[in-house]
Structures are given as C-alpha cells and as structure tokens.
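ok so dumb question maybe but i'm new to this and my supervisor (M.) told me to 'just get the structure for Arfaptin-1 isoform X2' and walked off. so i did the thing. is this what she meant?? sequence i used:
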Amino acid sequence: MAQESPKNSAAEIPVTSNGEVDDSHEHGFNRDLKHSLPAGLGLSETQITSHGFESTKEGVIEAGAFQGSPAPPLPSVMSPSRVAASRLAQQGSDLIVPAGGQRTQTKSGPVVLADETKNPAMEKLELVRKWSLNTYKCTRQIISEKLGRGSRTVDLELEAQIDILRDNKKKYENILKLAQTLSTQLFQMVHTQRQLGDAFADLSLKSLELHEEFGYNADTQKLLAKNGETLLGAINFFIASVNTLVNKTIEDTLMTVKQYESARIEYDAYRTDLEELNLGPRDANTLPKIEQSQHLFQAHKEKYDKMRNDVSIKLKFLEENKVKVLHNQLVLFHNAIAAYFAGNQKQLEQTLKQFHIKLKNPGVDTPSWLEEQ
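this is what came out, is it supposed to look like this??
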C-alpha cells in the first residue's frame, strides 16, 4: 500500500459500512476549530454537526456556552460564528441559534419589499368619499343660487340659444301631437269611406232602379278613400320625420346641455371654495388646502370649457339639420293637403313620388305565391 498524503482533518468525512457518516472525527474538527480561535473574546463555542444522508437538514450550527477563561462581553464585536451563520443563511442553509445569556449583535440578510396590492374595498370607499364630497359641494351651490346668496357663471349668448331650443322643442312637440291627431281622424274617415263605398256597390247590384246612382256614389267614395290613403301616407311620413327630429336629434343636444349645466355647477362650487380659502389666513395648515383646491378648480374649469364648446358645436349643427329637415317636410305636407282637397289625384301621387314615399294599402291583401308566379 502506498503511503497516503497528509490531509486536513476538516476535509475528511469517513463513512461507515452501512452508509452513515462517522461522528468520531467531528469532535476532533470542532476541537481544532476551538483552539484556532483567539481566546478571551467571550465567544461561544461553535459545533458543526453533519447528520446522516436521510436527514432533511444540512449544515446545522449549534452554539453552546464556552468553557474557557471568562472575559467581558463586547456587544459591538461580530462573532465569527455569526458571520459564518450569515453566509450560510445567504446560501439557503437553515440557521438555528438558541437564545443565550450573552448579548450579540446580529445582521439580517437582504430584505425585498413587495408592492402592496391595492384593496378593491378601499378603492370603492375612496370613490364613495369623493362622490359624497362632490355631491355636497354641488348641492350647496344649487341651494345658494336659488336663495340668491351664491354667484353663478353665465354665458349670455349660449344661454339664449339654449332657451330658444327648449321653447322650439315644446312647439314642435305640439305640432307633432296635432299631426298625430289628424292622422288618426283621417284614418277613421278613410275607413268609413271605404265601408260606405262597399255598401253603395252592394246596393247598386241589388237595386235595378237605382243601379247607376248607387254606382256613382260607390265610385266616388272609393276614390276618396284611395286619395285619403295617399294623403295618410304623406302625413305619417311627416310625423315620422318630425318625431325623429324632436325626440332624437334635439333630445341628444339637450342631454349635452344637461351635462354642460352639471359641469357649470361643479365649476362654480369649486370656484366658491377657492375664493373662501383665499380670503382666509395663509399658514402652514391652509396652504396645502389652497393648493389642492386650486388643482381641483383648474380641472373643473377645463371640463366646463370643454362642455361649453361641445354645446356650441351641437347647437350649430342642429340648427342646420333642423332647417333642412323641416323645409322638406313642410313642402311635402303643404303639397299633399292641397292636392287632396283640390281633388287632384295625379298631383297627390306625384308629391309622394317626389319624396320617395311608398304606400302600403291596408285594404289590399298580400298576393299569394301562385299569383306572384
């Protein structure tokens, strides 16, 4: 056998025949480590124990009381065993240090602070708080204006246009209501004329003495019913167009006007708050409130200016669209009424063709598929 080279005892890990680590050399390694440390520093005895292969923990450091010469403890000195434990902790090893009577300074590893997740309940609570504060300010502003104590921002030109629009909407609604009444009455009259024409036609067949007289009246009533249906189609088209103008186009513009008025109230409410804060004392407590109020006032001022611009644009386009729509519909209504009461059937039909109106005769049934073929 060749002579083995000398090796450090700390590097030798003897293993028994059953695969377990021999603990006989661990005591020698701990003894050498204890003698290698300088005496008199009040250090604790360090013992490194290696467990078997079946153990789940590795590199466990156990600290016990040092049996050497006593020395006064130095709290500000980091013990080598703690430094070793800190390094082992950074490498992912488990560190077990029992509490002893000696005070030592410890160092913690790097700490990573994760961002706190936002709580949905807190966010909703904050939204409710802002909404309540804004509602309170706006309600106070409205009450102050109604009592004559608060001031309000007024755009004279824009307010006049809005008042005219609301007044015109009421008048157009009245015209729409009357036109619907006329359509209902005309429908009943046409239905009556059609029934009367059928009655005259039946009597003309059964009464030989008055055959021609009943026949003339039957033809007249049927012609009136046909012209009445044509006029009814023109009136219904007029009603549908005016209804779209009043209940959709004008209503959409008035919704924008309501948003503009809400923005105006918010703007005046925050303007009043800022004026009250500026009139008060300026110190370390009021300056942050003034800055915050100035920021909110500027945000609501921008919103108010934007809504005022939107209302002005919508009013301009509404006026152009209203003139175009009502011009065509009024011409249609006039020509249809005039042709009907003049008895000019061709002019009445020409009027409907001019505005691309297709009539659906209620008295004529839909042809079957055999008739279509």
